[in-house]
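#structure-requests
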Amino acid sequence: MRAKQTEIAVLGALSIEPMTGYALREQIREVLGHFWSESFGQIYPTLSDLERRGDVVRRGSGGSGTFAVTRSGRARLRQLLRQPIQVVPPRNGLLLRLFFGRQLGPDACRELVLEARAEAERRLIRYGGIRREIEADQEHVEDRTYWLLTVSAGEHTARAAIAWADQALAALDGIGASRGASRKGDDR
């Protein structure tokens, strides 16, 4: 299943414009990297498989050859995009730590949440910049709406993370306040 996801990333990027393997790797990292991570060790073997099947063609030779998607590659991309989305079990280090937060204590958990909130704020700023770039791009007008949908999802996710962090901080402050009150009661 992972290989099919890599095919989508590779064929999708090449459907926008032909590029070298290196440029493809950078596009996947810089553009898709905001919502999709791809192992660089998978990109080149996938390119070779796609070339062998005739879904991409290489123009030029060696490492400087430019890959372009073929008609069969576009058909393969549409076929892959129509398949059900693969649900991947989440792996969130922050939530793992908060789940066992009693071991860390509220102050350490508060620091983790504050950093997560700051990162969400940074993502929101980055998405704003990406939105402006896409809106100003006159070369890919037909893709604009679709690209803005992905940016919008990122913006909503960042805003939700900020709202959650604020709620989590209030809850952690409540734990700290109740611990302080219980300690005062212990002193009596």
